[in-house]
Structure formats: C-alpha cells, structure tokens
Write a structure and sequence with these properties.
The chain has 423 residues and is an alpha+beta fold. It folds into 2 domains: 220 residues, Rossmann fold; 163 residues, Jelly Rolls (Sandwich), CATH 2.60.120. The protein has 9 helices and 19 strands. The strands form 3 sheets. Strands 6, 9, 10, 12, 15, 16, 17 and 19 form an 8-stranded antiparallel sheet that branches. A 6-stranded antiparallel sheet has the order 8-7-11-18-13-14. Strands 2-1-3-4-5 form a 5-stranded parallel sheet, with helices on both faces.
C-alpha cells in the first residue's frame, strides 16, 4: 500500500510538472485577456487568429533549427521583410518573428516560444503601430514594451537588444504623428541608461516635415517598400556589426604615399581625453581598444563612437599630437540614423552628422545615408576648406594656429575609418 502511494505521488508530481511546462500549449490559440500580461488590445479578428495559428505552428517546428539566431520581433512591417529578411544580412542566421496585425501585448505573450526558446544572439524590436489603430494609449504601449525588455533581460544579461523607434505613418491610418512621437519619447525613457539596449532613431530618417511617412518610401503610408526596407537595413547594419551579430566585410585599405595614419585601425594608440577647456591631456588610450567608459571603440578597422545609453552624451576624443603646419586630413565616416558627431580641427568643430536628417548641410547631393562618406579638410595657415564627397561644407573654416584633431560623441552611433593626414 505504501509503495503504491509513493508511486501515485511520484506520478502526480511528474504529470503536474509536465502540465505546468505545457500550460501555454497549443501555441496556435490566442488565450483570453485574463491570461495575458500587460495592458491594451489583443487582436482576435478571424484573419488574425488564422495567421497567428499558421505562423506560430510553423515556428514551433523550427525551434531547434533556429537556435542562436538573430531574432526580429514585430508586426506586418517585420513579417513582410520575409523569412530571411531578403538576404539583407548575408549568411547570418535570422528568425523573423513578425506577425501582421500584432500588438505589443500580443508580442509580450508570444515571447517565451517565439523568441526566448531560440536562445537568440540578439533581438531587434519594432512594435507599437497597431496598438494605436486599436485605440491604445502611448502609455499602455510603452508599458508593454517595458515588460518585453524585462523578459529579454531576465533571460540573458548579455544579449544585445536593439529597439527601433516606431516608424511614421499618417492620421488617415489612425496613427498620427503626435501619437507616434509620444510613443517614441516614452520608449526612450523606458530604456534610458540601459547599456544592454541600443535605441535607433528609425522615425527621423523616414518622417517628412509634418512627421508623417513619405509615399516614396511608404506607398500606403504604413508599410515600407523596397526603398524603405533598404534604409532600415542600412541603419541597423552598423549597430549589428559593432555587436558582431552580422558578418563584417574586411577593409583592405592602404594609405596613399605621403599620408600617415592617425588611427591604426586596431586600437586607440595616439588618442586620449583632454580637459575640455584647456585641452591639456588627462588620459591616454595607447594600446587600448576601448576608452575608459566604452564610448569610443576600435573595432573592425573603425573608430566607433557608440550610442550613449543616456540618449545624448557629449564626449571628446583627441589626438595626442598637435598640428601647427599646413596639412590635408582625409577620413571616411558612416552615420547611423540622425547621428550627431563632429571633427575638431585644431579645436573648432566641423559638424559631422547624418547630414540630410540632422543637418546642418541638408542640401548635399552626393551624401549617402547609411553608407561611407569621405571628408577632406585642406588646412592652409589659419583657414580650412572642408568637403564631403567633393561638395563644399565650409570654404573658409577659421582655425587657431595650432591644436590637435578630435572626434566628438553626441547622439547615435558614428563610425570613422581611414583617418590619415599629409603634412
């Protein structure tokens, strides 16, 4: 009798444990609101329930194959990029977990099976636009995002999280510019100071002067076309490359005769921090690949000014050497969406930004958003002629007699490479 009782108890424990583990099955069913965390709408239209069932049933069979994938979680904008994101990131293993029509609360519910079960290398988030159509408040949407971030962070304290701002749309889609700007402001507050989360300004790069989507990139004022997806890819790539989440092409650049490299492509030798007023040296980074607080990194042949967790943070990295003779400075830069940086020449700052969005040179014809652009600075005496891809930025940029070269960090991610000088 005692043996039978022990067997029954053991059987009950096993069955109860198994039931607990599978309590969320089947993945094809959308549970009642009482079983879903968060606030706001969960869609239950017939077309949506069918899509939810088809997508999640398929994904449940791919869990093993998609282990350690880079996961994209979102709605129709993400889904429509295709299962492999149309090859945007080469051989990188990706898992597209976008469901058309989904809301932030629906995504929060889907997290365990669709995202966390894959043990992702990183997660890219784009969400919130459908909540607006269903009448959710920006505060409810941001609250759900906060819960999603917490779930991701509780699963791994190292996994990179890339949060994209909600794309612009239009009032006719029940997604006004005012509402979307409010959501994005709240998103920024949710992740402010969180070093595990990188926020990308994917709103400014798409918005017109009224804060709405442009038909040239969003024909229906909601979903991007091929041009829009390419723009999204270009602003994601630098961040994903810095985190080693996608492949990085080798740079086999060789310095021209007569030029000397100011950045060796391997570490921050020859660079350091100076007092902002007196410009006296206070810290050298010789032999180090990262500045003391991590804002500047030497990686993949690039000197990267990383995105500050605070949103904006003003830092200045300077050469150890100072320059008092005529010279020509050449460098290439790649700006993330709405990034703000600058190149100091003996001390005065030449703005180096995502020019067409962040200014001040918004009328440039040859600037290439999301790609590498070349700046050439020709210094003669106490003036400099500055160009970007051959177009004049400043014809007579006033300079002091002597001083170092510097790179500013402000907003967003900025990369510099091939920094060289000819005396």
């Amino acid at each position: 009798m005692l043996l039978a009782m022990r067997f029954f108890i053991a059987f009950f424990v096993v069955v109860f444990s198994f039931a607990s583990l599978t309590a969320r099955e089947p993945v094809a069913v959308i549970p009642p609101d009482s079983e879903i965390a968060g606030e706001g709408p969960v869609r239950r239209y017939e077309w949506f329930r069918n899509l939810w069932k088809n997508k999640r049933t398929t994904w449940a069979k791919e869990v093993e194959a998609k282990q350690r994938a880079l996961v994209f979680l979102g709605d129709s904008i993400t889904q429509s990029w295709g299962d492999d994101l149309k090859g945007a990131f080469g051989k990188t293993k990706v898992a597209n977990r976008g469901i058309s029509g989904d809301t932030t609360r629906g995504m929060l519910y889907r997290m365990p099976e669709d995202v966390l079960a894959l043990n992702p290398t990183g997660v890219v988030l784009l969400m919130g636009t459908n909540d607006l159509e269903e009448g959710a408040s920006p505060e409810e949407i941001a609250g759900n995002l906060e819960l999603i971030i917490k779930k991701l962070k509780s699963s791994s304290k190292e996994m990179p999280i890339i949060l994209c701002n909600v794309f612009p749309s239009h009032e006719s889609k029940r997604r006004s510019a005012e509402q979307i700007k409010k959501i994005n402001a709240l998103y920024a507050e949710v992740v402010k100071g969180d070093k595990q989360v990188t926020l990308i300004d994917t709103w400014s790069m798409f918005a017109n002067e009224n804060g709405d989507a442009k038909k040239s990139e969003f024909p229906d004022l909601l979903h991007p076309n091929a041009v829009g997806y390419k723009m999204w890819e270009k602003t994601l790539r630098p961040v994903l490359e810095l985190m080693d989440l996608v492949e990085v092409s080798a740079d086999n650049f060789k310095c021209e005769e007569g030029y000397e490299l100011l950045f060796n492509g391997k570490d921050l030798t020859g660079w350091g921090y100076r007092n902002k007023k007196a410009l006296t040296k206070i810290e050298s980074f010789d032999g180090r690949s990262t500045s003391s607080e991590g804002r500047y990194q030497a990686k993949h042949g690039r000197l990267v000014v990383t995105t500050p967790p605070e949103g904006r943070s003003f830092t200045q990295l300077w050469t150890s050497e100072e320059f008092d003779t005529d010279f020509t400075l050449k460098l290439e830069f790649r700006a993330n969406a709405n990034a703000d940086s600058g190149v100091f020449i003996r001390r005065p700052q030449l703005q180096c930004r995502d020019y067409l969005v962040a200014g001040p040179y918004k009328d440039l014809k040859s600037y290439k958003p999301g790609e590498w652009n070349e700046i050439i600075v020709v210094v003669k005496g106490r003036t400099a002629r500055c160009t970007c891809n051959g177009e004049v930025l400043e014809e007579e940029f006033k300079l002091p007699e002597s001083g170092p070269i510097g790179l500013e960090g402000d907003r967003g991610q900025m990369e510099y490479r091939r920094i060289r000088l000819k005396r």
